[in-house]
Amino acid sequence: MVHGELWTIKDLFVYPNEYIYWSVQIVMYPFMTGLVAGAFVLSSLYHVFGIKELKDIARFALVFSFALLFIAPVPIILHLQHPFRGINNLMTPHFTSAIAAFGIVFSAYGAIVASELWFLYRRHFVSIAQPLKEKQDKTLAEWVRFIIFCSLTLGVYDVSEESLKKDEKAIKILAGLGIPVACFLHGYAGFIFGSVKANALWMTPLMPVIFIMSAIVSGIALCMLTYIVTMEIRKFLAKRKKASQFGHQTTEELQSAEINVIRMTAKYLLLFLVFAISLELLDLVFRGYTATKSWDVLRSVIYGKDFTSIFILQYTIGNLIPFILFLLPNLTIRRALLAVVLVMFGVFMMRWNVVVGGQAFSLSFAGYMHYHLPIIPHDWETLKEGFFGALAVFLAPFGLFWVITKIFPVFDVEKSH
Amino acid sequence: MNRRDFLKNTVKGVAGLGISAAAIEFINPKDLLANINSDNAKARWAFLVNTYKCVGCGFCVKACKQENEIPYDANVTRTWVERYVITKEGKRYADTPKGGRDGFITTKIEMGKDKFQEVKDEDIQKAFFVPKLCNQCENPPCVQVCPVGATYQAPDGVVLVDRTWCIGCGYCIMGCPYGVRFFHPKYHTAEKCNFCYHRISKGLKTACVQACPFGARQIGNIKDPNDPITKIILTERVGILKEEFGTKPQVFYIGLDREVK
């Protein structure tokens, strides 16, 4: 069977070679990169602009961004017909292609996040490696721990006031540099779609900007979600066992800290949400007003075939309802939790409507294609490009985050920065 | 430094920079190579389709599939034939069942989702066939978007795919406004019509041109003014598909209709 044939249903006049070639993993790709970029921008709001209220979530967001970073290329690789040739993209980048920049932008961004993390956690590494270094008769576990943290210090054990000040300066510079790079990383994901002149729905110069805005929205939402979940776990643990065992904070302290952070972060989420929706609606209005050749078929897709997924799922459930939830006074954790889940769903639906919606009509403008997401996998292709492949990509960062926090703890570290 | 000196030095500086920049431009190796190549290329292949002559027999599609080893029953094809039917009531229909491989042997029009529309002969205002294939664009968007350079334009204008290097991202398939590209069912790399490059480079005609019993398909070298196909393209009124994309397609059509998608 031809690739794409399995999940494509053709309606009316469609060219013979047309199928939904870009399926759910290509929906996941901008969704995941969006989360990376958004989480980083959130952390930079504190480090660069000194928004003190975001201090607690900033460190958290940076580490989470690092965990997401490793997963961001996975959907693309899973989507490739020749995954093992993915490296060709780095070996012979063809720079007239938007995808060719991926390796460079992505590694540059990864380097920035990694170095920022290093400066942020240097003192922590030293505080673990130093005593172990001096200790005689290390056990095997201590040896492993020593080797890991000793390598992470990169041989720098200087934690004087002066050097820590320099660290802070470096963090500020890196975070500042990171914002444009994060925006570029995601803006270029938008460019991948926006520059396809063959596709009437994708081709708009607004695409990169829309992608950046919704990326920040989804990144903040994911950080809030994970922050709430981890705080709830900590509260639960604090309640069950003696508080002294798990940090120095009691349940009440955690509670008040949590709601303050969430209320503050929600304001920034709303701000970016307004930008994102305005741009998307501007694009829609403009297309309708100018009504070029493709508008007839686009209108039938937007207001007809995809009405539910665009106007009900994306705009109403994913944007309007959380918007109201956030705006109502006295935001509670539960309400915030519901709202951030809906916001993330809304951003996911936006990616879905762009990627799948862009292939919902034929290049002939006289036919349609319907996408049926494979759920029960019956071969490798329907596994990796099906529901479970996408789910695995979504869940992987959480697992990775748990592993990474063993090295970069996000709570109860010395409040040096 | 007084104002006069300042202006003098500025002019000198700009002129100096300009000259050195021009020198860099002059020896740009890429341009140099491109110039050498374009001079060496004696051919620029172009295709001519006379839609008046096409009867929709599908011999071209059959021949193409066999010649280029595209699995016969796979629902993808390097070339295909479209049927357009416009009724007296102004209804417009178009279809290409199996790419027109088996010919158009029924008056039922394929509507997708396993549905068919019967159009009676007496209701037809206008009907015709349009063969399609890769346009070997002068400005190919598929080449532009390939992230690894696995698809490229040969000096004679034909766009080729390197099956050993293609990563199968599908960006070129998305980038082609004509829908000529697909994934090869066996090699899982991007696949497209290449004017039977293995044949034309040996002086043979393409498989579809050879298979067409009515001469609806012809191939020629537009760099050769004596080529009969070139003469037709240059002297008669020919059309191209989807001009608005700026791809500068090199497949020319006689008898193109505004209904052609």
How large is the share of residues in beta strands of chain B? 15-25%
Which percent range fits the helix content of chain A? 55-70%
Overall number of strands of chain A: 2
- CATH class descriptor of chain A: Mainly Alpha
Radius of gyration of chain B: 24 Å
How many domains of chain B? The number is: 2
Please report the two chains with the greatest interface, counting residues with C-beta closer than 8 angstroms to the partner's C-beta: A-B, 51 and 50 residues
Quote the beta fraction of chain A.
under 5%
- Give me the CATH fold name of chain A: Formate dehydrogenase/DMSO reductase fold
In CATH terms, the superfamily of chain A is Formate dehydrogenase/DMSO reductase domain
Structural class of chain A: mainly alpha
Global morphology of chain B: elongated
Rg of chain A computed from alpha carbons, rounded to a whole number of angstroms: 23 Å
Shape of chain A: globular
Main sheet attributes: strand count, strand direction, barrel closure of chain A: 2 strands, antiparallel
N- to C-terminal distance of chain B: 68 Å
Strands in their spatial order, largest beta sheet of chain B: 11-1-12
CATH topology group of the largest domain in chain B: Alpha-Beta Plaits
Read across the widest sheet of chain A, the strand sequence of neighbours is 1-2
Low-confidence stretches of chain A at least 5 residues in length (pLDDT < 50)? none
Number of helices of chain B: 8
